[in-house]
Every structure is written in C-alpha cells, then in structure tokens.
Amino acid sequence: MSDRDSFIDEVSEEVRRDRLFGMLRRYGWIAIALVVLAVGIAAYVEWQRAQERASAQAFGDQIVAALSYDNPEERREALLGIPAEGTRRALLAMLAADTLETDEAEARTLELLQQIGSDDTIPSLYRELARLKAVMLLQDRAEAPEVLDLLEPLTIPGAPYRLLALEQQALAHVRAGDTSVAIETLREIVQDGAATRDLQARARQLIVALGGSLETAEG
Fold this sequence. Notes:
By secondary structure, the protein is mainly alpha-helical. The protein has 3 domains: 1-68; 72-141; 143-219. Helices cover 77% and strands 0% of the residues. It contains 10 helices and no strands. The longest helix has 65 residues, at 3-67. The chain is elongated and about 100 Å long. It starts with a helix and ends with a helix.
C-alpha cells in the first residue's frame, strides 16, 4: 500500500470518527432519554405491583377480621363496611349474603346483590353469581313465577352457574305445585356430568322426597 493510499485511509477513518461523534452529540440525548424512560417505566411497574400486593393483603386482612365476629349481624356489617369497588365489592356482597339474621339485613343484602347483578363494570361471572344469590334470597320472599323468570337467563346452555340455577328452578316449581316439572329438572342435574357430587346428591334426595324414581334419573 502506498503512502498516498495510507494517508487517504487515515483521513477517511478520521472523517467517519468525526461523523460518529457528531451524531452522538446531536442524537445521543435520545438514547439517554430512552434508557431513562425504560428504567422509569420498570420502576413504576414494580411500584404498582407492590401497591397492588399491599392493597390485596390489606383487603384480605379486613375480610378475615370481619369474619372473626361471632355474631352474624356484626360479621355482615363489618363486611359491608370494608371500602371496595368493582369485583371486591361483589365479593363482599357474596360473603354478606351468607350472614343474614334479620329481615332488614336480608332486604339490604338483596338490594346490594341486585345492584351488583346489573352493574356492567363488574365481570359477568360475578354479576351472574350475584343474580343467583339474589334469587336464592327471593325463594321465600317472591312468588314462584317471578323467581322462575329471574332464573331463566341463568339456566341457558353455557351459563356459568346453570346447574345451581336449575336446582333453584326445581325448588320454585315445587313451590308452584309443579312436582313433575321439578323432578324432570332435577333429573337433568343428575344426568349432567359437570354436576358436582354434592349437587347430584341433593338432586337425588329431592327426587326421592318428591316421589320420583332414581332409576329413571340415573338412566
């Protein structure tokens, strides 16, 4: 390689180096900003996760404390006194529905369940469970036809609580005096492979109590 060629290479390398440094001086702040932004986002996400964990733990501790009361009415008041929105509010309502002692408490809990059941901001799984629990409370408060109308959308194929709703439907038919319809509904539960053992056992016991045949139900 001649001295001329060597000189040209050195000049070209120097030019490339100057251009690189120039680009770094001009655009380097962008790379630095991106790094700072990435670090900031990662820190925020981790902080948010820590906040969510702390919030969930505090919520759980409040539920445990509320359930520690011996008196059902005190448990219900403590549960419904926990600040909550959305899914958490639905969960508290479900727990409160199992701690009823007075007609007033039952009426207030029923109203809350109905509110949750119609709240589109709450996941459908919780809304439908709230509707089912509300219907269960209404079994002794409303006329059988009204209960059956409320249960109808909960018993369609694919509904998450379909089998439990069918059980309530059978009870409503019994109240209405439609024993044969109730037995057929209970047989549908027994023959459904998705039904739990406890649910099938309850259905079989009610079939027998209503004078139905278990052989037909099993078949």
